[in-house]
Amino acid sequence: MEDEEMEKKVQQYLQRKGFRLAELALQEDRNRLSTSAVSDVALHRSDNDPARYHDGYSKLRTWAYSSLDQYKHELLRVLYPVFIHCFMDLVAERHMQEARSFFHTFREDHEVMHSRDLQKLEGVLSPSHLEETELARSLRQNKFRIKLCEYSYELLLQYLQKTQALVVLGVINEHITFEVSPGQPSLISDDVDVVSLIGTSKDLAKQINQKEVHWGLLEDSVEERMEKALAESDKIEAESKDAEADDNKKRNAEGGKQGTSLKKTKKDKLVGATGKNVKTETSMVSVAPRVKPELTIPATPIEVEQSILEDLRNRAQLSSVALPSVSFYTFLNTHNGLNCSSISHDGSLVVGGFSDSSVKVWDMSKIGQPAKTASSQGGNGSSQGGRISTVDEGKKPYTLFQGHSGPVYSAAFSPFGDFLLSSSSDSTIRLWSTKLNANLVCYKGHNYPVWDVQFSPVGHYFASASHDRTARIWSMDKIQPLRIMAGHLSDVDCVQWHVNCNYIATGSSDKTVRLWDVQTGECIRMFIGHRSMVLSLAMSPDGRYMASGDEDGTIMMWDLSTGRCVSPLLGHSSCVWTLSFSSEGALLASGSADCTVKLWDVTSSTKALKMEDTKGGSANRLRLLKALPTKSTPVYSLQFSRRNLLFASGALSLSSS
């Protein structure tokens, strides 16, 4: 019998026998079961209703924006994680149209801080894309950590309890971890890590950063030997001056010129003492510890040592009150064909890598010379002063290197300018001789375009960064890489050697910077804090600090020994393409797509860090000393020479009319 027939027979039996109470009880049970079934169906329909995500987020957004100003900026931090997970849940439940509508309705709330992530998520159009898209997969596998003060956290809990917003509550429980701190709410400008993704990557970073880093300089390096020789010669010279002054004092003790001589002697001693103090105080290099090299260091030729000694002897002492001279070279009429540029360490050569696969090198000593031919190409094509022209004026003003089969994305000179490296989208790296003007070697190993290549501080070795998510270390005399550094989750966009050649640093589109041991190929530091792809890196001369610049215009200074951010530098409004420390480490120069070169005071920040080591890194901000606008020329590269002259280059595309 069916259930309905059975119930009907039982009811007829109860009526026939006169069991009225039993009949009423049966009817009541039947009504209750029917009501329960209807409510279950309604709840099921509510769970599958895509509008619940729109309503839940919209109410949370309205509440957060209407909160007290003192706590509003903290409560607004919750919106971004809730927004992206509501969107991805709609996609996972196959509500594609509702997901797109939700995304476009509320994306403006997060465009300023997370524009790059939104561009990637915009391409998520099906549940399969959630697994295939790296960012979406990372967001769904890891949790967000959000810093709130105690009172802001209480306000959020009260809202969730009062509104019974099940969708928002589910997203928060599953995807967000709160770090609650007592006291007043923090300002977002004081902490770049208030909203960050944690989970496997964060745990990995904590584990990696416990490893030891020997950040000092190489013992018995060429620079150290030259500095000692220079110091000894200065000491001998000072002693001879003192002896001469004493002789003059004795000779004139009886004469009428005694007062004048004493005055001159005091002045000489004062000048000598002042010069000595300046060198000791401004140099970060002299106090750095010494470490043994892990790579075989090539021998340095005598003429190179003499050149270094001469540079050290004529080095300008820079500080916050003594800023460097800047020489800016501009490429004219490149018509968006210039992809990269680089300057040799002495500023004598400038190289450009172009989209037509060519590499061109200009000799700065010949740029200012008048053209030997009588013909003239007009104002825009002329090559005058510090400007570089790619126009052919009868005789080419540059040396042309051809060999790549794709756009050239990076070029770098060896420390002494005798060799040049270039990397291309053809996945190769080429070594050129600037003396022979010829291609010497083609290095093949990467599988995809090579975005960056850099010589080591001692030459001979070089490192490359590629779209294949790896960095590789090479030796000039071997065509295969010595080490492969794998671990980044996206493109490795830039690479930089540590000054002692025992480590390399890599910056990636996964928004992290990593430090690698060249001997083991192991990652020993992972720096998390950037909000966009990392485009540039620089190491301080003493090897303790590293600066990194990203696509949003933020520069971060890191302490390699602790893995901690010393200071975020906020000032640029566009991509930071190049960074360079002065020779003694007192200044940091940054070049950006916002057409400015900025000079930052490093010494004051690092001193404050040492004095107040218990405080957070964000308390010690580097001071902007000067902003140098280039009118309308984005800055591609910066290079401090050993004499502390700052060289810069950029490209200005002018119309042909």
Question: What is the overall shape?
Answer: elongated
Strand content: 25-35%
What structural class do helix, strand and pairing data support?
alpha+beta
Low-confidence stretches: 38-45, 257-282, 371-394, 614-620
> In percent, how helical is the residue content?
25-40%
Total number of helical segments? 17
Number of strands: 33
Mean pLDDT, rounded to whole units? Answer: 80
Q: Give the distance, in angstroms, between the N- and C-terminal Cα atoms.
A: 95 Å
| Major sheet strand order | 10-6-33-32
Radius of gyration: 33 Å
> Main sheet?
4 strands, mixed
Main location: nucleus
Keywords: Nucleus, Repeat, Transcription, Transcription regulation, WD repeat
Pfam families: TFIID_NTD2 (PF04494), WD40 (PF00400)
Protein name: TFIID subunit TAF5 NTD2 domain-containing protein
Question: Would you write up a description of this structure?
Answer:
This protein is 35% helix and 28% strand. It is an alpha+beta fold. The strands form 9 sheets. It has a 4-stranded mixed beta sheet with strand order 10-6-33-32, with no helix packed on it. Strand 13 (419-424) and strand 14 (428-433) form a beta hairpin. Helix 3 (51-65) packs antiparallel against helix 5 (79-92), helix 13 runs antiparallel to helix 14 and helix 13 crosses helix 15 (302-313). The protein is elongated. The termini are far apart. This is TFIID subunit TAF5 NTD2 domain-containing protein. Residues 48-176 form the TFIID subunit TAF5 NTD2 domain. InterPro entries: TFIID_NTD2, TFIID_NTD2_sf, WD40/YVTN_repeat-like_dom_sf, WD40_PAC1, WD40_repeat_CS, WD40_repeat_dom_sf, WD40_rpt. It is found in: Nucleus. Residues 228-254 have a biased composition (Basic and acidic residues).
